[in-house]
Specification:
153 residues; alpha+beta; five-stranded antiparallel sheet; 4 helices
Length: 153
């Protein structure tokens, strides 16, 4: 009395095993994806911090001598970095002293500071000049993180 067909109890066991296996695969994919995105964002934040610090050091003379044209030229060198969407120099509160691309708004921070959201980073870095309120703010796009995901798929 052997039957080759799967009994209703056998179907339930097969479905339970298949469901558990699929859940484990999806969970392992998600758990491997999260550290990849986190590492990309941390690397992008470190690069943006370094770029902002270098830009702040190069803007000291332009801010001290009140030379907006020189500050503008310094900011335009960021066009060589494809992920930078904009930058601005603020001296005190108000309008930007010089800007490149889409000028990020002034956050009122006077120390090195990084803010991020789902698709961009904003880095604020003080300029060591005679102007105590001088700060450079750099906006960086994180669209490359989605390119990393496309490679995984």
């Amino acid at each position: 009395m052997s039957s080759q067909s799967i009994t209703p109890l056998g179907r339930k066991i097969v479905i339970a095993i298949l469901g558990t296996t699929l859940l484990a695969l999806v969970l392992s994919f998600v758990l491997n994806l999260i550290p990849t995105i986190y590492a990309y964002r941390e690397n992008a934040a470190d690069r943006a911090r370094a770029q902002a610090e270098l830009m702040a050091a190069s803007l000291v003379a332009a801010v001290d001598f009140d030379d907006a044209q020189a500050a503008q030229e310094n900011l335009e060198t960021l066009s060589l970095v494809p992920s930078v969407t904009g930058a601005a120099v603020y001296v005190g509160k108000g309008a930007p002293f010089a800007a490149f691309g889409v000028a990020p708004r002034h956050w009122g921070r006077k120390q090195l500071w990084v803010d991020s959201n789902i698709s961009s980073l904003i880095v604020s870095c003080p300029i060591a000049s005679q102007q105590p309120e001088a700060v450079v703010i750099v906006a960086v796009s994180l669209e490359g993180q989605w390119g990393v995901l496309k490679v995984l798929f």
